[in-house]
Amino acid sequence: MNKYLQLFRIGNCIMGIVGLIMGLWVAAGYHLIDRPVAVIFSAGVVFFFIAAGNSLNDYIDREVDKQGHPERPIPSGMMRPETVLQVSAVCFIVSVALSLFLNWQSIVVVVTAVALMLLYELSTKKRGFSGNLTIAALTAMLFLLGGTIVDALSRTYILALLAGLATLGREVIKDIEDMEADFDRYTLPKRIGTKWAGVVGAVAIIGAVSLSPVPYLTGTFGPLYLVPVIVADGIFIYASVVQFRSPRLGQKFAKYGMLVALIAFLLGGLQ
Questions:
Q1: 41: exposed, middle or buried (Cβ count in 10 Å: 0-12, 13-18, 19+)
Q2: N or C: which end of the chain has fewer CB within 10 A?
């Protein structure tokens, strides 16, 4: 694989664009085809933002990656640390520059997301729960960005909250799973123990489940939303319970629940 594609983690970039398009679809529906220029520029914003974040991550974690991810560009010797840092800076600048072709609300979301990503990599990542909250916020902001781009932010608030809560729960459960490997991070399980961290993760996930009927009840989504979201809720509930026995299964099923929830969002927007 090309060293830059590996550095950017191209799969993550593509998934980010898919999440953005989902947010745009929820906000605009079929009218999305009337905004091709905005879609193209916003996709570029997300692509370069994720590429920048992953590059910065590789630079900051370059010593840790010698053990955990020796195949990555820096520990493998394919790229110098200074080059990776420069690539990250350029990608952040390009992401913000592309956002200038969107409306002012979108620019605010993008600049805020850049600030949060820098804060995460430079500080909150190693502080455990605050890092979890940052990742949850960045996930939610994909939907908020979709709403601002098409001037329909009110349609994406609740979806951003649902995505943020589900992501927060999964991040906490993943920290329980990775507790022994996270020698350089003071995660929530290390602070309060795996049992109580599991409770926090479960509360976040159940919070998302309890709010999941709101998009239908408020008319944001049509009836096609109901069946897949019920399935997603069932998966989330199972994940919140099984994670006390097996954090690996818990975070795995939470991920499945998020995928089914995206299908629910997609079908709900067909009304």
A1: middle
A2: N
